[in-house]
Amino acid sequence: MSEKSPLVIELETLQQQAQTELAALKSESELQSWKTRYLGRSATVMQIFKRLPEAAPEQRAAIGQFANQVKNTLEAGFNQMMETVRQAQLQQSLKSEQLDVTLPGRVPARGRLHIQTQVLREVCHIFNEMGFQVFRTDEVESDEYNFELLNIPAHHPSRDMWDTFYTTKEGVILRTHTSPGQVRSMRAFNPDPIRVVLPGMCYRYEQMDASHEIQFNQIEVLVVGKDITFANMKGTLVEFAKRMYGKDVRTRIRPGYFPFTEPSAEMDVECFVCGSKGCPVCKGSGWLEILGCGMVHPIVLQNGGYDPEIYSGFAAGMGVERISMLRYHVDDIRRFWENDIRFLEQF
Ligand code: FA5
Fold first, then answer.
1. Hey, how many other C-beta atoms are within 10 angstroms of the C-beta on 56?
2. How far, in Å, from the CA of 79 to the mean position of ligand 1?
3. Measured in angstroms, how far is the CA atom of residue 202 from the centroid of ligand 1?
4. Is residue 257 within 8 Å of 264, Cβ to Cβ?
5. Contact 215, 202 (CB under 8 A)
6. Among 61, 142, 170, 297, which residue has the fewest nearby CB atoms (within 10 Å)?
7. Whether residue 181 has its Cβ less than 6 Å from ligand 1
């Protein structure tokens, strides 16, 4: 370069000024604002490239190179200074934070089973003791098992009893109850007698309230054999309620309707909240429904491969959250799946 370009002089002055300022900085935030000022997008060194036409054509390449060199020098200076400031801060905090090795250690928080898993296991355990085994089936079900094979053909008005979550795949739904496990277990055990419980999550497109959720656990009970009677069913379910809630619990069985059982019934337990006087949880009735039940319909037995002339059976389906509500005096079913740790930690 024969004569120094004004752009070069500008860059030299800038570099000197920036380096003097940098050397005096003491904190990370000061360094960051320095970086914005001297290396940010609108900083002089960055703008120089746009201003190259101000210089004589033969000087432009050299000025560009020099601008790059200034930029790299400033960046390196910044990185080095940042490291120095961080080290100084670390030394400072090590000096001020003394470690007291005599303090007791902090106990790490321990996870636990969700209350519904605990109750689900307890119910299964009670039935295990009564001679039942656990049989699991899928939460994603076919319309055929959830409805058709349970004597609920398409367009039958009783489908209204189960508000269903459909999937985009034709004929595939989220199970609305554990009853599809009835035909699945019959087909698995055929021709042996059956005594199973089928636990798991069910889904319904429901209006949520104090006693209705859109996802909840059910446990299905199924017994198939020769000479199984309604009295066997009543005895089993009342015995279960006594083992679950204590021997003095009051229960009642009243007529009900399910397309897959005949006759059908529902079992209630007295409402814990109001002591059977009537409240929003029991909708003023004094009783809380915990399960539906009945003698397995001959068509369902047939669909499972059992001859209804020879075999009979009973089935029941109970809501596990309702059981927990009664047990632990929880007045709103929505608490269970809100994931509020303060609520869950109580169990
Ligand atoms: C059924 O789902 C039948 N599959 C039960 C059954 C099985 C009948 C075998 C006969 C033979 P229901 O829709 O009533 O029936 O539900 C059974 C239980 O699940 C209810 O008693 C209740 O405890 C629980 N339940 C039903 N809907 C909900 C909901 N939205 N939220 C929480 N629990 C529910």
1. 11
2. 66
3. 9
4. yes
5. yes
6. 170
7. no
The end-to-end CA distance of the chain, in Å, is 83
Q: Best mutation site among 218, 237, 262 for ligand 1, i.e. most ligand atoms within 8 A of its Cβ?
A: 218
Q: For 212, which DSSP code?
A: B
Starting at the edge strand found earlier in the chain, the sheet holding 261-270 runs 133-134, 194-203, 215-225, 312-319, 287-296, 261-270, 251-256
Q: What is the residue-level pLDDT of the chain in tens, covering all 347 positions?
A: 457 888 899 999 999 999 999 999 989 999 999 999 999 888 888 888 888 888 888 888 899 899 999 999 999 999 999 999 999 988 888 888 777 888 898 888 888 899 999 999 999 999 999 999 999 999 999 999 999 999 999 888 888 888 999 999 999 999 999 999 999 999 999 999 999 999 999 999 999 998 899 999 999 999 999 999 999 999 999 999 999 888 888 999 999 999 999 999 999 988 877 878 888 778 888 898 889 999 999 999 999 999 999 999 999 999 999 888 888 888 899 999 998 999 998 98
Domain ranges of the chain: 6-96, 115-344
Which architecture does CATH list for 115-344? 2-Layer Sandwich (3.30)
Closest CA to 296 of 159, 185, 176: 185
The response to whether residue 291 sits with its C-beta less than 6 Å from ligand 1 reads yes
The 8-class DSSP code of residue 190 comes to T
Output the six-digit token pair for 307: 């001859």
Establish whether residue 180 lines the binding site of ligand 1, counting it when its CB lies within 6 angstroms of any ligand atom: no
* Residue 225 bridge partners (DSSP): 312
